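Methods, example record. To illustrate the input and output format used throughout this study, we show the complete record for Core-binding (CB) domain-containing protein. The sequence lines were provided to the predictor; the line carrying structure tokens was produced by it.
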Amino acid sequence: MKANENVSVLENTMKRRGKIHTNKWDKYLDDYDNYVKEYKRHYENSQNGDEISLSLYPYMRAKWENLKELIIKGYDRKCLTKKQVKRVIKINMKIVKACF
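The corresponding predicted structure is encoded as:
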């Protein structure tokens, strides 16, 4: 009976870890989405000659590189769910549409 209880506890623990892990990636994707919105706004302003938006580009580029590498590592390690991968693609399409 104790062996069954131990297995049950282990299964519940693994489910909770998976949920926490998924929530962590959801937060990263929220950050990435917010970044894209901010980038798009500054991109449009810089096209209109806003010097402040132009000066923010190096910072935003570095932030984008960090987030991109984090998401790529998560994808390579198979940490992202199918729903999260679709969300990454949707977010990336926002950048493509804004720049063209």
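Annotations derived from this record:
Residues 2-47 form the longest helix (46 residues).
The chain has four helices and no strands.
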